[in-house]
Amino acid sequence: MSLLGPPARGAICLLVVSSSIVVLSTAGGLGSDATSRSAAAYLSVDDDYGEEDESGDSSFSFPDPETSSASTGLVFGFYDDKCPDAEEMVSSMVRKLYHADPNVAAALVRLFFHDCFIHGCDASVLLDRVGGQRSERDAGPNQSLRGLGAVEAIKRGVEKACPGTVSCADILALAARDSLVLVGGPTYPVLTGRRDSAQSFYYDADGGGIPPPNATYAMTLDAFARRGQFTERETVALLGSPSPDDLTL
């Protein structure tokens, strides 16, 4: 089984009820958007990392919206009370996947970028099409995304310890950080408490929202300016820097 091989259907990643969108700030940190959605759904992810449990059940339990935090803000250590080992579990599984195939690190970082660039870091990039309605994964720039199954494998591992607690959006954010560390980049604290989206944004992703591989300099600057009001200097620094530690804005 190739870690980044052809897509395979069947894996499940949980969506959280009453999710709030989180957006990247120009300072490189994470801020909270006031927009929220009330919805719940399951989503399919590709690759073949995920496996059913011993009972053959491939479903997860939803977090209770009544007991989940009502705050839309992010904090350090969001899971300290309900799942204190969450971040270490994610790190451990990312290391395991990386040692099996080092290419997974780049795949996870790119997946996180493509998720955050469209309506914030809300795991909407993981959504599968429903009823013929296209999802972000159908958008041109996203059709070559890899690592979806890696996120599924991490989610399954965390679910075994803390059912219905850790969002896929937070897993993406933590896994991207851990991937950067594994390839020689610096570590940094990650704010957590994101809520997963139940809505996908195909037209935003396909209509120039994400710069395609053949994007011109002008197209790239325009995309970053529209998404986060990034300046030319900031955009060049973000795209040209080997790691966050080398950024000079």
Automatic annotation (TrEMBL):
Biological process per Gene Ontology, one example term: response to oxidative stress
Record localization: Secreted
Family: Belongs to the peroxidase family.
Pfam family, one: peroxidase
Occurrences of domain Plant heme peroxidase family profile (ranges): 73-243
EC number(s) from the headed UniProt entry: 1.11.1.7
Stored Gene3D superfamilies: 1.10.520.10, Peroxidase, domain 2
Keywords (A to Z) from UniProt: Calcium, Disulfide bond, Glycoprotein, Heme, Hydrogen peroxide, Iron, Metal-binding, Oxidoreductase, Peroxidase, Secreted, Signal
Name of the protein in question: peroxidase
